[in-house]
Design goal:
The chain is mainly α. 51% of the residues are buried. The chain has 18 helices and no strands. The chain has a single domain, classed as Amino acid/polyamine transporter I (Up-down Bundle). The N terminus is likely disordered. It is globular. GO terms for molecular function: cadmium ion transmembrane transporter activity; manganese ion transmembrane transporter activity. InterPro entries: NRAMP_fam (IPR001046). This is Membrane protein.
């Protein structure tokens, strides 16, 4: 080997490690920012109003359940080297198609809400008409997928947006002076426990397409196999940690406002919190966070939904970026000309509650099939904890679906 090649080798290794770290962080933030959408902001605010400091316990339990779900899914995707729908089809022929249909329908429906949230974010930030704001946001998201290395661009966008959201949220939380001592006590000894809140948070954080967002990103980047499991596990936990920091910061901000005896406007609870905490500039800050949360959810929903149909056709695999762009265009057009189709959102929302138990249950079956994982031994504690999540989310998902179906026909 020539001296020149010897000199280049450490540089190449260093570059590979740097790229690997970037992808791992990108996957973590893709999963986290996909879950931090307009619904995340509203749910956290409303539940904090209802449960006050006791919501700290709900956040803790939901984060633990999120970790159990994500580690299971990411590890088996890495071990098998297959996407979620491919794993499901090998467990039971046709199951992957059903899962893909649910994911794509759910992703499309909720992307309409994400586009709407992006429009509202620009309205609060800059005073733009929400429809115009939604169209500008859609163009921004589309541009990401027109870049030659779209995946790398997506990684950077979600990381930057994620850091901006966290910093702004921590600033607002600091300004409201929340009762931290009361929060610490209620984290382990809550005055009130809401199972409904726990399930809602878990479904919103790792439900639907979000379950597979990070795992599919790592797979597309070539990070797979048993040797990479420590990195994959670390990336999945990082994603949940980012979501947790954001959730805790918003919770503290809302709690600080409530503890001061201030009244939150029910028409737009999150925006009201920011305005009460920091004044008129707080409303602008809310716009920045709402837009960042919505646009990253638009990108995450489109990317992950299309990743579920890529393996079904060589044509889709070849032109997946353009199909992702089409996905965003359909979402934006629907919102622009129809608005948010309430009945579809309600129905798909109810079906979305069943995606996590179906997907995770399938993953757990695959984890114990030798033809799927070879010599890999899935940890018993992950199988047990994952099964608990499946049972809890499955039972409550069915109840939710039964409750919501009559609303469709009203």
């Amino acid at each position: 080997m020539s001296p020149q090649k010897k000199k280049q080798k450490p540089e190449q290794i260093s570059q590979e490690k740097k790229t690997s770290r970037s992808v791992l962080l990108g996957a973590a933030f893709l999963m986290a920012t996909s879950s931090i959408g307009p619904g995340f902001l509203t749910q956290t605010t409303v539940f904090t109003q209802q449960l006050a400091a006791s919501f700290a316990f709900v956040i803790l339990i939901s984060l633990l359940l999120d970790v159990f779900a994500q580690i299971n899914v990411w590890r088996i995707i890495a071990v098998t080297g297959l996407r979620g729908q491919e794993i499901a089809n090998k467990v039971l022929p046709g199951l992957g198609v059903i899962l893909a249909i649910l994911i794509v329908l759910g992703g499309l429906a909720f992307n309409i809400g994400n586009i709407a949230g992006a429009g509202l974010g620009l309205n609060a930030m800059l005073g733009l008409n929400p429809i115009h704001g939604a169209m500008i946001s859609a163009i921004f998201a589309i541009l990401i997928f027109t870049i030659k290395e779209a995946s790398k661009a997506m990684d950077k966008v979600v990381q930057i947006a994620g850091f901006i959201m966290i910093l702004l949220m921590l600033y607002v939380a600091f300004k409201t002076f929340p009762p931290v001592g009361e929060v610490i006590i209620n984290t382990v000894k809550p005055e009130e426990i809401s199972i409904y809140a726990i399930i809602t948070l878990v479904g919103g954080t790792v439900g639907g397409y979000i379950t597979f967002a990070g795992g599919h990103r790592l797979l597309d980047a070539g990070i797979k196999g048993k040797n990479n499991l420590p990195l994959v596990t670390k990336s999945s936990i990082t994603g949940i940690a980012v979501t947790g920091v954001m959730r805790v910061a918003l919770f503290l901000a809302v709690l600080g406002v409530i503890s001061q005896g201030l009244t939150i406007n029910p028409t737009n609870p999150p925006a009201s919190v920011f305005q009460l905490a920091v004044g008129d500039i707080g409303y602008r800050l809310f716009g920045v966070i709402m837009w960042a949360a919505a646009i990253t959810s638009v990108v995450g929903a489109a990317y992950t939904s299309v990743s579920f149909i890529r393996s079904f056709s060589p044509f889709i695999e070849k032109y997946h970026n353009w199909i992702t762009i089409l996905f965003i265009i359909i979402s934006t057009t629907t919102f622009t000309f129809i608005g948010e189709p309430v009945q579809m959102l309600v129905l798909v929302g109810a079906l979305n509650a069943l995606i996590l138990p179906l997907a995770l249950g399938t993953i757990l079956v695959a984890a114990n099939m030798k033809k799927m994982v070879g010599t890999y031994k899935h940890p018993v504690w992950l199988t047990v904890t994952g099964s608990i999540v499946v049972i809890m989310m499955g039972f409550l998902g069915i109840i939710t679906l039964i409750e919501q179906i009559p609303l469709i026909f009203q």
